[in-house]
What we know:
The structure holds two protein chains of two kinds. By secondary structure, chain A is of the alpha/beta class. Chain A is 34% helix and 20% strand. Chain A has ten helices and ten strands. Chain A has an eight-stranded mixed beta sheet with strand order 3-2-1-4-5-6-7-9. Chain A has a two-stranded antiparallel sheet with strand order 8-10. The model of chain B has no long low-confidence stretch (mean pLDDT 91). Chain B contains no helices and four strands. Chain B has strands at residues 19-25, 31-38, 43-48, 51-52. The interface between A and B is medium-sized, with 25 and 23 residues.
Amino acid sequence: MATQESRGIRTAIMMPKGKNMDSGLMKEAIRDRWDRTVQRYAILPGHGFISEEEKEAWKNLLLEVIGTEKLNVLDVGCGTGVITLLLAEMGYTVTGIDFSEGMLGKAKERANGLNLIVNFKIGDAENLPFEDESFDVVINRHLLWTLPDPERAIFEWGRVLKPEGKVMIIDGNWGNCFGSHGRIWRYLISMPLILITERRNPLRWVYGRNIENLLPLGQKKRPEADIEILEDLGFRVDLMDVKIPKAARTKTVLGYLKYGRRDDRRNFMRRGAKTGVKEE
Amino acid sequence: MKKELMDILACPMCKGDLELSIEAEDEKGEVVVGSLYCGKCDLQYPIDDGIPNLLPPELRQSSD
């Protein structure tokens, strides 16, 4: 068993046998995992997008969602700053927060290299170190499913949002119960969102099954589970279509940056979208 | 870390105000080394290399 899996998840988090993993221990394991992975990211150019075309596609999506006003944006779980730096380049005031010091160091290095001003903080997505109503937009990518307590995280994101603020979540169905047919989608509070389908679970190698099985959203049908949480917390979520350029889609690094490898032929099967509004 | 960020920073535990102590600044007046202190929780959050570490104490690495 170890032989077959050890290649794919060579550096996956190994948890002590026979111990129950509490959320703190789980977070620690995940953080250590990213700290150790950061070197792998160093080889990626620029913002971490493979092509200009892909970068432009992301830019257009973000612009469509956030608008041209130079708003205050918080990127939760910003990692090495792929989305963070793009937002900064677009002229938004951006704060990036991540609990991996290693990833943040890389993000800061990139920001400096590109002469971009970003405020980075080491912090926990479920315990944000910000005053209430500090941001216009809270964005995150491939984060929510990794959190031991997604309800608490979304509550916190809502807390730091200004009235009429927007949450944009980009995530997917990575859980085991959906086999290799996980979906990537993004949804936004009060703006369009895209829904992209992936066939495999690109993050399996990252965490390994033992952690994945313990993450609450890893076992739930998504985005339905997320919508339920959002609605319980007073958000309204609707659906709509958003276009992503085909070329950019097939070349996108969604499947590369955090996943470490690509499979163009199988990524991104379907698209869809939804919007939502934070109700006051 | 820019000093004006103090306006939005809060203790991750109680969401109360933090007090800034500066040990080193750069030429732009940004805090490079220092700390943030929450009097209510009696917790100190370090600022290192311009990045404040605002993780709840139980999530901080033992090497901190």
